Amino acid sequence: MSSKIERIQTKAATLGPYSPAVKANGFVFVSGQIPMNAETNEIETGSIEDQTDLVLQNLKAVLQAAGTDLDKVVKTTVFLKDMNDFTKMNDVYEKHFGDIKPARAAVQVARLPKDVSVEIECVAVAGDEE
C-alpha cells in the first residue's frame, strides 16, 4: 500500500479547516456532508427527505471528485437530529444506494452544523483499486 495522502477539494464551501475528503491507502474518507447547495452554499431547510437527497448528492459529488463513486462505499455514518426521521431518511438513502448496502451506523445527535436535520459521512474504496 502507498503511504501517499491526497486531500480532495471540491467547489463547495466547507464550514471549517478540513478537507471534503482524504484519499489514503486505497480508501477515500469523506467528511460529513450536510444539505448545502454546492452552487449557492445555501442550506436546504425542507423536509428530511429533501435534506437527505441533497446530502447524498453532495456525498456522490465528493466521491466523484476523488475518482470513485457510491458503488465503492463500504461504510457510512448517518447523524440525525431526530431519530423519528430514520424511516424517511432510510427510504431516500435506499434509493441512492440500492443493492450496494454498505455497512452503516445511524445515531441521533443533539445538534448538527447549521441546525440541519441530517449529516452523512462515508468511507469508500478508491476508484483506482480493484
Structure overview:
The protein is an alpha+beta fold. It has 2 helices and 6 strands. It has a 6-stranded mixed β-sheet, covered by helices on one side.
- End-to-end Cα distance: 13 Å
Query: What is the SS-derived class?
Result: alpha+beta
Number of helices: 2
Largest sheet: 6 strands, mixed
Secondary-structure element order, N to C: EEEHEHEE
What portion of the residues fall into strands of 2 or more residues? Answer: 25-35%
Determine the mean pLDDT: 92
**How much helical structure, as a percent, in the residues?**
10-25%
Rg, alpha carbons: 14 Å
Describe the global form: globular
Enumerate the strands of the largest sheet in spatial order, edge to edge or round the barrel. Answer: 1-2-3-6-4-5
Number of strands: 6
Low-pLDDT windows of residues: none
Summarize the structure.
The protein is α+β, with helices and mostly antiparallel strands and 130 residues long. It has 2 helices and 6 strands; from the N terminus they run E-E-E-H-E-H-E-E.
How do the strands and helices of this protein lay out in sequence?
Layout: E1 5-8, E2 21-24, E3 27-33, H1 48-65, E4 73-80, H2 86-97, E5 103-108, E6 118-125
Parallel strand pairs: 4-5
Antiparallel strand pairs: 1-2, 2-3, 3-6, 4-6
Notable characteristics:
6 strands; alpha+beta; 130 residues; 6-stranded mixed β-sheet
